[in-house]
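For reproducibility, we list the full input for the fe (ii) ion complex.
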Amino acid sequence: MPEVLNRLHKEHADLSRLLDLLDRQLALFTAGGAADYDTIGAILRYCLEYPDAVHHPKEDLIYDILRSRDPVLAAEVGDLEEEHRSLAEATRELAELIERALAEEPVDRDHVQKLTHDFIRRYRHHIAREESHMFPAARRVLSDRDWAEIDGQLDGEDDPLFGDAVADYFRALRDDIDNLAALAQGD
Ligand SMILES: [Fe+2]
Ligand SMILES: [Fe+2]
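The corresponding predicted structure, in tokenized form, follows.
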């Protein structure tokens, strides 16, 4: 499999674990508990710093080539660039709301709950569609030379949460994700 697809697939698995943690925060919140705005804020900060800035642009690059080679198939896959733009917008909107909550400004709990729920649902749907539609279409249409060129353009941008060198400000979040994964495995 092309290196870039390996990476994107791994990042989807990581993102899914991140969404599992956000789901858990939402469940606690929906059950009437206090929201852990620090954790939710860190999750959104990561989405802005890595998926929006690094993961999605790599997919846009693949999608651009797919669209130029087979516009009909690309249209069936959907407008990926538009989805990325609207996901980034939803991320910023929710991140601003959480920032206000962290600054102890009044926020509407129902609104936080609704935006968080929609955010998780959209992200999961987006990832599932890329895995089931976009990646297989790209593998059918792009040539070995295309993949080699894309792989050659991959920068060594480190993932500040799931990479080897975890940024200090994501340390607590990484621990939460690892703990949740350990719980799920019954460790
Ligand atoms: Fe994407
Ligand atoms: Fe993706």
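Residues 158 and 164 are 8 Å apart (CA to CA). The helical segments are 3-30, 37-49, 51-69, 71-77, 80-102, 109-141, 144-153, 171-184. Both points were considered when choosing residues for closer inspection.
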